[in-house]
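Appendix B. Worked example

We walk through a single record from start to finish. Start with the input: the chain for Membrane protein FxsA, Craterilacuibacter sinensis, length 142.
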Amino acid sequence: MRAILLIILAYPFVEIASLVYMADKLGGGFVLFWVLCSALIGIAMLRNQRIGTLLTLGALFNQKGNVSVYSLLWPVRYLLAGVLFLIPGVISDVLAIILLLPLSGPGPKVRMPDGAAPSDGAIEGEYTRVDETVDRDRHLHK
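Next comes the structure step. The output line below is what the pipeline stores for this chain.
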């Protein structure tokens, strides 16, 4: 428990030290640009989180077969990556990029409910074609 507390207390200092080191090696303007761009990426990710979550979950449930628990956690990983991009620093940005990598975990498979059969993309239904007769006098060009 002490180790976790020590890591949490040391994290801001390590982030600040990494930013100072980068500013020393690459320049302050580049580091400022880096921090602003990563913050804008984080804001954009968090703003689009609602739509992305719905689309991801919908695509997962339309897949044939089993759905892994690891893929169900993608919206949580995306949200956490957005928060990490908002935190200024190199370490948080690297952690956010690692979270966004498309890694497939060894998680157990979840069976689809009996009523929710996976679809193959076809929509069943009936239709009737109704052609409207065209009046030649109504056309603009003759």
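Two observations about the output. The chain has a mean pLDDT of 79. The beta strands are 67-68, 109-110.
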